[in-house]
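REQUEST FORM: STRUCTURE PREDICTION
Request ID: SP-0412
Submitted by: Lab K.M.
Chain count: 1
Length (residues): 107
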Amino acid sequence: MQTDVLQGTLDMLVLKALSLESTHGWGIAQHIGRLSRDVLVINQGSLYPALQRLERKGLISARWGESENNRKAKFYALTAAGRRHLGDEAADWQRFVAAVQMVMASA
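STATUS: Completed
RESULT:
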């Protein structure tokens, strides 16, 4: 089963992927897919606007470089502000998941 990423969670997932390693857009999408066992599929049409949004907010930085297959690619890295923001988002997400689980477990 493949699902679209819930509205509002894409930024958090991108930040999490970049907290593990700096990489290009395709690498971010692949990383999220791999970690979710291919349940989460990141659409390129959603990913690149999210990367631009995160860069404008100062949560990630970008630089041009060469990919593994010798192609020009933009590489993204988490900034200190992005790391702090990810911590806040992760805590909020855990509270949300716990609340949904409580509702779903009710009789």
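NOTES: The first strand starts at residue 23 and ends at 24.
Reviewed by: T.R.
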